[in-house]
Amino acid sequence: MRVVVIGAYGVFGSRLLELLKRDGHDLWAAGRDRRWTEDCAARFGAQSLHVDLAVDLSPILAAAPQVVVDAAGPYQFYGSDPYKVARFCVDNGIHYLDLSDDADFTAGIGALDAQAIAAGCFVLSGASSVPGLSSAAVRALADGLDEIVLIETAILPGNRIPRGKAVMASILDQVGRRSKTWRGGMWRDTRCWTDRRRYRLMDGPVRGAWFIRVPDIQLFPRFFAARSVMFRAGMELPALNLGIATLALLRRWRLLPDGRRTPHRRAGWRACWSRSGPTAAAWSFMWSGTLLGPKATGRCGDAGSCWRTRDRDRSSPPSPFARCCATPTASAPAPAPAWPRPPWRRWKRPRPTCR
């Protein structure tokens, strides 16, 4: 299968190329920087393709791809026509997926659904940690519940695990800004990188996490009919968390200038790209729901049931998940809408306790 990966020399794009290469696909590494693209293609045995998303997408057709993966980002900075790449793929009958973690971008991709069905291809946004992997985890954990009261997710990456510039730009762009959260069956205003909570990991360490805006906040209330949805994230080093919290406070006081290329963002990128500290990483999925049966009515997970996994290697969850989504397309050109299962199972589903 011929696959074009846009943003192939990024953290997630290069990892995805490596995984797809193991599956034996015909790969094309595409990017704006010609030299970086050629170096990346040579490293993974792919062919290089110079593509500037802001100028011209027609070079993609030279590869005659079956699937195009947009791993570039940041997706909230795609300008007045954010779905330019997706629409181009639909017009040419090419399957499209991206690694978007931007709430508005991912939620709005449904506008192309009818066109994609008519073209016999699919358009999938969010084939990443959120909402792809998180939705699969919540769906598995909430299986059997008649009502979901709370979905609370936290991602706690290790400081030595690679992080893409687009991801950090997305976080630093939203800190301190007002955002909508779904709590108690209604939308409430919450500022990003506030509402701190502490999470205890499996082997004892306690990590802090703050609210951030991700697609789960917009999609889960409708998809899972949950009464409350919350998502938090936190860095491993306390100094980084304190620095980002300070930026959020400055923006709240209107002391932080807007704009993509400000000094605080460059400094934040340098700080967040440091490789000091341990390598522990974890996910935390907490849920609470109501289980109704013929013999008993009770509540499951009142104290919160946790599902955690640790990752000590350099693997990034978005890349294996995108690999899982992209690979079956050769045999199923127009699959039915579904939430894919995670491509690995390093954890065990906790058994809820009812009372």
How would you portray this structure in words?
The protein has helices at 11-22, 34-44, 84-91, 103-108, 113-119, 129-141, 165-174, 215-223, 238-252, 263-272, 318-326, and strands at 2-6, 26-31, 47-50, 67-70, 95-98, 123-124, 147-156, 178-183, 186-191, 197-200, 206-211, 228-233, 282-292, 297-305. With 355 residues, it is of the alpha/beta class. The protein has two domains: 2-126, NAD(P)-binding Rossmann-like Domain (Rossmann fold), CATH 3.40.50.720; 129-305, Dihydrodipicolinate Reductase, domain 2. A six-stranded parallel sheet has the order 3-2-1-4-5-6, sandwiched between helices. The radius of gyration is 20 Å and the shape is globular. Mean pLDDT is 79; it is low at 293-315 and 329-355.
Number of helices: 11
CATH 2nd-level architecture of the largest domain: 2-Layer Sandwich
Strand order of the largest sheet: 3-2-1-4-5-6
How much is the average pLDDT? 79
Terminal residue distance: 51 Å
Estimated structural class: alpha/beta
CATH class of the largest domain: Alpha Beta
Reading the helices and strands in chain order gives EHEHEEHEHHEHEHEEEEHEHHEEH
Q: Any key phrases for this structure?
A:
2 domains; globular; six-stranded parallel beta sheet; alpha/beta; six-stranded mixed beta sheet; 355 residues; 14 strands; Dihydrodipicolinate Reductase, domain 2; Rossmann fold; 11 helices
Brief summary of the model shown:
The chain has helices at about 10-20, 35-45, 85-90, 105-110, 115-120, 130-140, 165-175, 215-225, 240-250, 265-270, 320-325; strands at about 1-5, 25-30, 45-50, 65-70, 95-100, 125, 145-155, 180-185, 185-190, 195-200, 205-210, 230-235, 280-290, 295-305. With about 350 residues, it is of the alpha/beta class. It has two domains: about 1-125, Rossmann fold, CATH 3.40.50.720; about 130-305, Dihydrodipicolinate Reductase, domain 2 (2-Layer Sandwich).
